[in-house]
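User: Can you write out an input/output pair for a complex, sequences first and structure second?

Assistant: Here is one pair. Inputs:
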Amino acid sequence: MSKQAPGVLSLDSGIECCSPLVAEPLSGSQAGELARVFKAMGDPVRLRLLSLIASHAGGEACVCDLTDVFDLSGPTISHHLKVLREAGLIAGERRGTWVYYRVLPDVLGQLADVLAPTSVRRQSTTKAKATQ
Amino acid sequence: MSKQAPGVLSLDSGIECCSPLVAEPLSGSQAGELARVFKAMGDPVRLRLLSLIASHAGGEACVCDLTDVFDLSGPTISHHLKVLREAGLIAGERRGTWVYYRVLPDVLGQLADVLAPTSVRRQSTTKAKATQ
DNA sequence: TCCTTGCTTCGACGACTATCGAGACAGAGG
DNA sequence: CCTCTGTCTCGATAGTCGTCGAAGCAAGGA
């Protein structure tokens, strides 16, 4: 149960495409929304979970695969998955005996755009090719 | 004092340009480095501070400007600035009576690239509007 | 020199978090 | 029906975090 809200990130609250951090001061609510997501990613275990899920073949991973990677109890992994779920980063679906998690589409891209809009990033990251 | 290390983020540990979260599982140390930065950004006050500094005219802001924005004590603002500093996101410099903070260059861009490499981002963001 | 202002450090306190073991729930298979 | 396996929830505990007031430094001006 809980809130596997659609687009939890903030699409609703106006962050989406045009509010890069560096262009203008974040509003209180924007900061609150974003902070919730970054806080969820502010743990090594959760970051690895996210990466494991995102990079897994087929775009989704079974909890059983994830548990083996860490020296942590099942409940702990389950807890971290719940945090990622409630932050709107992943979604889980039960199929038969196993539960599969996948990364929600676009969320990471939108976060990246808030940190540094695409155009800006192209020059600062790859300052050699002045495309675009 | 402290560790205003050069390139704290992780340039050293191999994250920099070619390890997007979604391409392959993060190593333990990569996750640790990244988590430190995301954890620093996982607080609304710190995100707004970061945004205020980044978007301020001249690329830097005096602490006195930042303090007025929040209903928080001076020591608390100072504490948050210290967290951002130790995460390698900002740097402070005293000039006369005032201390000015600025966002370290490229850090946000590199973070963005870890979340979603530039090329991928262009398409996923474009169709974000169609989703939901 | 002393005083004032700006910022940081220190010490403390309440709130939150990561982790665990025990137990509950959901399917699959006998 | 029962049992086994995979996952989640609950309750407890140790540790971390955000916040404050008090005190300390640093710089500029009487």
